[in-house]
Amino acid sequence: MYQTREQDIIPEYWYNIVPDLPEQLSPPKDSQRDKSSIEMLNRILPRKLLEQEFSFKRKEKIPDEVMELYHQIGRPTPLVRAINLEKKLGYSGKIYFKYEGATVTGSHKINTALPQAFYAASEGVQEVVTETGAGQWGTATALAASLNGMRSKVFMVSTSFYQKPLRKQIMEIYGAKVVPSPSSETEFGRKTLGERADHPGSLGIAISEAVEYALDHEYKYMLGSVMNSVITHQSVIGLETAKQLEIEGEEADVMIGCVGGGSNFSGFVFPFIAGRAEMIASTAEEVPKLTHGKFGYDFIDTAGILPQLKMFSLGAGFIPPGIYAGGLRYHGAAPALSMLVHSGRIKAEDVGEDEVLQAMRTFASTQGIIPAPESGHAIASAIRYVRRDPKSKKNIIVNVSGHGLLDLSIFSRGEK
Ligand SMILES: *Cc1c(COP(=O)(O)O)cnc(C)c1O
Predict the structure, then answer these.
(1) Roughly how many angstroms between the first and final C-alpha of the chain, as a whole number?
(2) How far apart are the CA of 86 and the centre of ligand 1, in A?
(3) Among 32, 107, 142, 188, which is least packed, fewest CB within 10 Å?
(4) Where does the pLDDT of residue 3 fall: very low under 50, low under 70, confident under 90, or very high at 90 and above?
(5) Crossing angle of helices 64-72 and 110-122, rounded to 10°
(6) String of b and e for 17-49 (b: at least 16 CB within 10 Å)?
(7) If DSSP codes are grouped into helix, strand and coil, which group holds residue 308?
(8) Which residue's alpha carbon is nearest to atom 13 within ligand 1?
């Protein structure tokens, strides 16, 4: 363990699963409106990102500048054996967790924000634009922009803007301009406000505003999940995990993660796809896209501005209930992940709020880490797995995508 320098655990290349999929990945499809949404992507995304989005190359070199930034924001993140949790559950095997909450922004989202911002800055762009719901993606965007010498603008869903002032404050400290969406800064926002002055906003509206703003000002737009290039960047999680397990002299028997758009889960498990590990994707019972969704083309965003992707989806018009795991409310899941769930290589299961809250408490009181509610789903699935067969000797590896220190209010709601 001690001979390996920390830097050597961060891989030199990201892994793109596309050439290793059982079938060819279906490309994004135009939304058949008057304007081409794919052409629009060409205007709002950095060239290098587009190249990665449609790449068939297995390996993608991590630029030296991004490597340096990865190190600065806390990579490699730790892989910890959860001995206290094993004891508490009376498990005969081992449980490890990869802890993405250890990055400075508190989740895995910075792993893709950094390269996206770097590619935008390399093209001489002065400002990047995005939307955020709960605030995790906006936080990662804000820091990635400032580390690459750019301004950032974040359209934050109005209800979250007023109800989650802490994340908004963090973004502002990082240097971002955060505006509640709908805003008066875009035509779409003004139109929406015209219809209802106290509109609560939605992720769909915020995306529309961010894209319009990026187009109008020739800024670049940042993508938080779902797209293949994002999944490729997130492979840093799984590649580090593989190296860390090798150092421990262990192998993965079971890998478990949570799925919103699918980026942390895919980034975690895809580098292991050729192996024999069992893979379980944990989704919210209220947003059961992988277990009850339809596999086919659907819109990325509610407003239908971005292209369609072939994926598991509950329908772009699906209105999720206001569950506390905001990051899991998305209606669809990344195309490559969807394909592998469809083919049966990856299993999916839903977990409900009570079980998640219980799992979060168990994890916090044994390992000391308060996980993000999203990550709580993965932990709950791991605990379920153990309870089915406590005498098993399997190595269970869980991805804990973020910490929950800014979500503490969910605990005081009490056990329903
Ligand atoms: C955004 C988020 C998720 C869900 O997004 P994925 O793209 O599925 O990873 C999960 N956990 C945390 C902590 C998040 O911030």
Answers:
(1) 44
(2) 25
(3) 32
(4) low
(5) 140
(6) bbeebeeebeebeebeeeeebeebbeebbbebb
(7) strand
(8) 402
Contact 111 CB / ligand 1 (< 6 Å): no
Please give the model's pTM, rounded to 2 decimal places. 0.96
Percent of the chain at pLDDT exceeding 70: 97
259 within ligand 1 shell (Cβ under 6 A): yes
Atom number, ligand 1, closest to the C-alpha of residue 328 = 4
91, two tokens: 């498990």
- Name the 3-class secondary structure at 323: coil
Mean pLDDT rounded to a whole number for the chain: 94
Pocket lining: 340 vs ligand 1, CB cutoff 6 Å = no
333 Cα nearest atom in ligand 1 = 8
Among protein residues, the one with the nearest Cα to ligand 1's atom 1 is 327
Q: What is the DSSP letter of 327?
A: G
The CA distances from residue 104 to 73, 170, 275, in Å, are: 5, 11, 31
CB of 167 sitting under 6 A from ligand 1: no
Ligand 1 atom nearest 230 alpha carbon: 7
Is 74 within a domain?
Answer: yes
CB 222 within 8 Å of CB 141: yes
% of the chain residues with pLDDT over 90: 86
Region 304-330 average pLDDT: 86
- Cα(131) to ligand 1 centroid in Å equals 15
Instruction: Establish if 122 belongs to a structural domain.
Output: no
Residue nearest to atom 14 of ligand 1 (CA): 327
**In testing the pocket of ligand 1, which one of 265, 287, 328 has its CB within 8 Å of the most ligand atoms?**
328
Could you tell me if residue 128 is inside a domain? no
Give the CATH number, domain containing residue 325.
3.40.50.1100
Residue 216 lies in a domain: no
Total domains in the fold of the chain: 1
Task: Decide whether any atom of ligand 1 lies within 6 Å of the 399 Cβ.
Answer: no
Task: Please give the residue range of the domain that contains residue 291.
Answer: 64-107+228-413
Name, in order, each residue with C-beta under 8 angstroms of 1's C-beta and a sequence gap of 6 or more.
247, 248
> What is the three-class DSSP state of 170?
helix
Atom 3 in ligand 1: residue holding the nearest Cα: 327
pLDDT of 316: 86
Task: Look at residue 311 and tell me whether its pLDDT is greater than 80.
Answer: yes
